[in-house]
Amino acid sequence: MADTDDDAALAGIARDLYALLPAEFVTARNSRAAEVRRAGERALATRVKVLPKPSVPAWAVGLVAREEPDDLDTLGELGAELRVAQASANPLELRALGKRRRQLAAALTRTAARLAEERGVPLSAAAQEQVELTWQAVVIEPAAERAVRSLLLVRTLAPGDLGGVALDGALAVPVEGVTIDDDDADDQPAPPPRRRAATARTSRGDDEGQEHRTGAQGARAARARATGGKQRPTVVEPPEREADEGSARDDARETRRAERDLRARERVAEQARADREEAQEELARVEARVLQVATRAEELRRELEKVEEELEELDEERAAAQEEREDAEDREATALRAVEEARGRLAGLAGE
Question: By CB count within 10 A, which of 220, 230, 233, 253 is most buried?
């Protein structure tokens, strides 16, 4: 229990620090470490002291996660739709969703640049490119979304060349569910709550050699963070109640994830239904045209038969006319010979 309280206190402190401007981080971190040390939490103070400063692009991503959490919902839902489309191997749907992913990532990058500019931290073109790659990673990998929602990001993310997202070293404090080490990554619980919480349910795997604190000491550190160092009466929650609350939170996260997947599948099904109706209309149009062409072909066929009959009749008439012409030619030749014979006789009589 002591280790869990310590990790929760560290995550809560880190979230508070990462909400500050980058230029304020180091001073605020050192001040918080000193405050925790004065409260008697020496090991926790040591861990606070070494919290890494986030890069400016990572800070800008966290800024959007804090200020515009609904945009992360949109990214997550788009990712669920993409996974459904990939499972169904629908190329048209994949192209459309890929275009939406690029448009949405660009829009959120502009949002990050605007929010950062409003706080006096302009984002360079290179920084905006890193921010946009992080949104792309959130869409393709649920664990990347959980990492962003944890508000503990110290570096930006990017889709890998072979798929997936490398998350090693991305978070200041390890968060449950923000690892991709098996084929069931998509079945991890949904990401943590979007708003900052007084405590976080995280586990710290790199604190070997640190001395262990009691549950009362961990709770005291968490109260010091939440109240700015002012002491309040100690209230220790029974382990059973903490377990029940943790189970309820996990159930709520899983429910949100299931609802998101359901919405994504409903949208894909609706698009498929619309595509089917459009294809049905196109089929009806083509079938009507086929009927029209078939009817015209039948008309042309009958007309061809009629023309062929006329052609046969004309062939017969031509043959008869040709025979008649040949007879006329024979008669003409015979008549010409008779004329020549008559002229010859006449000439003979005249000579006598």
Answer: 220
pLDDT over 80 (residue 332): yes
The answer to whether residues 134 and 86 touch, using CB atoms and an 8 Å cutoff, is no
**0.70 exceeded by pTM:** no
- Average pLDDT over every residue of 42-71: 94
Q: Residue 306: which of 317, 298, 318 has the closest Cα?
A: 298
The residue among 166, 160, 54, 173 whose CA lies nearest residue 116 is: 54
Per-residue pLDDT of 171-209, as tens digits, reads 998 887 665 443 333 333 333 333 333 333 333 333 333
Confidence of residue 249 (pLDDT cuts 50, 70, 90): low
Residue of 163, 118, 121, 113 whose CA lies nearest to 143: 163
Instruction: Provide the pLDDT for residue 3.
Output: 60
Contact 201, 249 (CB under 8 A): yes
**Contact in structure between 117 and 123 (CB atoms under 8 Å):** yes
Gap between the Cα atoms of 2 and 243, Å rounded: 15
